[in-house]
């Protein structure tokens, strides 16, 4: 069994909950309160800024040019490709990126990003890959599910670009490449290493759920 198949089995119950989370269900049918989406985008923009730094540490810690390139390309993917959709939506809400950067980090945003950054600084490229994988893979898992189940009802859905980004072929290729890369660097690891990486993967998956809760919660 591939290591990532094992990881998937371990987190499946949590990932299935993402698909029925009210934030995701309301994105799917287009009924999500726009204020909630705006708050999510602001926090997610801050999240992506910190997340990109985790890949930067990956470049520093990688031993080969091939591995360095892998992290380097993901920095570009995060800072340019993914944020482009955020910037477009935020512009519609009347916010420029510079203004978004001045917003306060929600406790969940700082906890999740601090967790990954601390792991990146103290760990090796395996720990960095495993801590960042639920983020890429689970968004593709959600995006593909939404496209498969709601793809033909998106014409007037305000969240269509978000769904199309994460369910797209390009993003699926990106996610699959990370899965493959993770299996490559985790070949022949010992049992205690497997357990350590599994725990990181589960924790990051739970942080993803916390992020959905944060995005949906009522605030005054
Ligand atoms: C909380 C949160 N988790 C995951 C993603 C998705 N994501 C973040 S970085 C990256 C890699 C390439 O852009 C991907 C897929 C998100 N946006 N926000």
From TrEMBL:
One Gene Ontology term of the molecular function aspect: thiaminase activity
Q: Which organism is it from?
A: Anaeromicrobium sediminis
InterPro entries assigned: Haem_Oase-like_multi-hlx, TenA_E, Thiaminase-2/PQQC, Thiaminase_II, Thiamine_Salvage_TenA
Record bears the keyword Hydrolase? yes
Give the GO cellular component terms, alphabetically.
cytosol
Q: Where is the catalytic site?
A: 208 (proton donor)
Single biological process term from Gene Ontology: thiamine diphosphate biosynthetic process
The EC number of this protein is 3.5.99.2
Alphabetical list of NCBIfam families matching this protein: salvage_TenA
Among its keywords, does the record have Aminoacyl-tRNA synthetase?
A: no
Keyword field: Hydrolase, Thiamine biosynthesis
| A family per Pfam | TENA_THI-4
Q: What's the protein name?
A: Aminopyrimidine aminohydrolase
Say which family it is in: Belongs to the TenA family.
Gene (name only): tenA
């Amino acid at each position: 069994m591939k290591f990532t198949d094992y990881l998937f089995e371990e987190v499946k119950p949590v990932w299935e909950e993402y698909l029925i989370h009210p934030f995701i269900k309301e994105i799917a049918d287009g009924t999500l309160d726009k204020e909630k989406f705006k708050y999510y985008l602001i926090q997610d923009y801050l999240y992506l800024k910190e997340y990109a730094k985790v890949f930067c540490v990956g470049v520093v810690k990688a031993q080969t040019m091939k591995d360095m390139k892998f992290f380097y390309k993901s920095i570009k993917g995060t800072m340019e490709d993914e944020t482009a959709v955020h910037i477009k939506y935020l512009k519609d809400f009347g916010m420029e990126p510079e203004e978004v950067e001045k917003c306060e980090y929600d406790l969940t945003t700082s906890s999740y990003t601090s967790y990954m950054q601390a792991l990146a600084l103290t760990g090796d490229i395996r720990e960095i890959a495993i801590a960042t994988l639920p983020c890429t893979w689970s968004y593709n898992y959600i995006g593909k599910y939404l496209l498969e189940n709601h793809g033909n009802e998106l014409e007037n859905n305000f969240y269509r670009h978000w769904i199309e980004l994460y369910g797209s072929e390009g993003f699926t290729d990106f996610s699959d490449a990370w899965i493959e890369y993770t299996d490559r660097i985790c070949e022949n690891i010992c049992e205690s290493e497997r357990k350590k990486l599994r725990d990181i993967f589960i924790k990051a998956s739970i942080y993803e759920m916390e992020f959905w809760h944060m995005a949906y919660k009522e605030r005054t």
